[in-house]
TrEMBL record:
It comes from the Eukaryota. Belongs to the DCC1 family. One of its GO terms (cellular component) is chromosome, centromeric region. This is Sister chromatid cohesion protein DCC1. The keyword Protein transport does not apply. Keywords: DNA replication. It comes from Herpetotheres cachinnans (Laughing falcon). Signal peptide: none annotated. One of its GO terms (biological process) is maintenance of mitotic sister chromatid cohesion. The gene is Dscc1.
Amino acid sequence: GAMRSRAEVDATLQTAKLNAAELLPAVHCLSFGAQAGAGECCLLQLEPGLCAELEAGRSLVIRGEKDEQAVLCSKDKTYDMKIADTSNMLLFIPGCKTPEQLKADQASCNIIHSQIAGFSNNYWELRRCRPKLKKLRKLLMEDPYEGPDSQKDQTSTFSKYTTEDLLSLIQASEEEILHQLQVIDACKIEGYWRILEFDYQMKLLNHVTQLIDSESWSLSKVPLRTCLEELGSLEPTEMIEHILLSYGRKYFDDAGEVYFEMHEDKICRAIAQMLLQNAVKFSLSEFQEVWQQSVPEGMTTRLDQLKGLALVDRSSTPETIFLLKVEDLPEDNQERFNSLFSIREKWTEVDITPYIQDLCAEKQTVGALLTKYARSSMQNGVKVYNSRRPIS
């Protein structure tokens, strides 16, 4: 339409019973540009930290495959993306001056004709979320590495994954993915991330613990160089080093020699897994005896080494223990609780904690999760938790 004059503006203000003296002298007259449409632009609300990332020239990435809810990742954090609707239409006006800018620039013409370039009724809201890392292990477990002599590796039709591949498939930031690869003891073989097949891991670990035993080394001072010299004829040296990194902490002595301090708990845990995975249920007392006999000399087995790996059934006679790995349970909160309550109807907080600990969002406690997904009752003076909904 035609450009408005000051007189028309004043007449409109009068009709609207607004006092011009209380308003800034500058008036924006808005008109829709020919191209102004919804859906051309998306608005994203960023917290100051993320804004700073972009301003510093770093990028934010949206990750997810077609069937997944999109997440946005910075270098080290992951955010859920949700659409927030607004009751007020949001207008995009290029070069629009804010009241502060107009006050500073008093001389500006008091009628400003602005064209609306686009509009929106919603924007994307970000909420910090747990990185979705279960899939990482799942992908790598499709084709675990069974060692250099494995025939399977030559003929395997499964995909292998580089860091780049994982960044495009896993809904987590780069730092979260690289950290998780360490947590699950993955290693890079010929440029691809692999997980060592459990039996192969145990074979390597066994070589190392037998060597420690025969050389009478202290478990806190295992020399890398001698390990590689002694075991290099049995297995590739990078595999020997990988198993030491997986089950020990690397350090240098004063002369710059590399040593490893072996993780007692992790080694005891792995040996327990080896014993338990061949039995459906194991009498607890019998298991504890065999387990202690199976670990390297000088190590002490304790049931709390098995958190999130095995569950003791105190209600059966005799008491039993069986394998229940937290990484095999669903990632979704409700599905996780459903599957736990189908395994056991009533749980104590001590027993269930290792199986839900990883679901806790930032600053959330296990107690808060239990309040939401379970109901509590007293059983023989002990607080127990059961399902809020009938388990099919």
